Amino acid sequence: MHLDAKIPSGPIEKKWDTRRFELKLVNPANKRKYRVIVVGTGLAGGSAAATLAELGYHVDAFCFQDSPRRAHSIAAQGGINAAKNYQGDGDSIYRLFYDTVKGGDFRSREANVYRLAQVSVEIIDQCVAQGVPFAREYGGTLDNRSFGGAQVSRTFYARGQTGQQLLIGCYQALERQVDAGRVRMYPRTEMLDVVVIDGHAKGIVTRDLVTGKLQRHYADAVVLATGGYGNVFYLSTNAKNCNVTAAFRAYRRGALFANPCFTQIHPTCIPVSGDYQSKLTLMSESLRNDGRIWVPAKKGDQRAPGQIPEPERDYYLERKYPSFGNLAPRDIASRAAKEACDDGRGIGPGGLGVYLDFADAIQRLGEDEVRSRYGNLFHMYEKITGENPYKVPMRIYPAVHYTMGGLWVDYHLQSTIPGLFVLGEANFSDHGANRLGASALMQGLADGYFVIPYTLGDYLAGQKAGKADTTHAAFAEVENEVRARLQRLLDVNGSRSVDSFHRELGKLMWEECGMARDAAGLQRALDRIPALREEFWGDVRVPGDSADFNQELEKAGRVADFMEFAELMCLDALTRDESCGGHFRTEHQTDDGEAVRDDANFTHVSAWEYKGYGERPVEQREPLVFENVKLAVRSYK
Amino acid sequence: MANATGTMRLKLHIWRQKGPNQSGAIKTYDVTANEHMSFLEMLDVLNQELIGKGEEPVAFDHDCREGICGSCNLVINGVPHGPQRGTTACQLHMRTFKDGDEIWIEPWRAKAFPVIKDLVVDRGAFDRIIAAGGYVSVNTGSAPDANEILIGKADAEEAFGYAACIGCGACVAACKNASAMLFTAAKFAHLQKLPQGRVEADRRAVRMVQQHDAEGFGSCTNQYECEAVCPKEISVTSIARLNAAYRRASLRSVEV
Ligand SMILES: Cc1cc2nc3c(=O)[nH]c(=O)nc-3n(C[C@H](O)[C@H](O)[C@H](O)COP(=O)(O)OP(=O)(O)OC[C@H]3O[C@@H](n4cnc5c(N)ncnc54)[C@H](O)[C@@H]3O)c2cc1C
Ligand code: FES
Question: Where in chain A is the domain with CATH 3.90.700.10?
Answer without folding.
Answer: 265-401
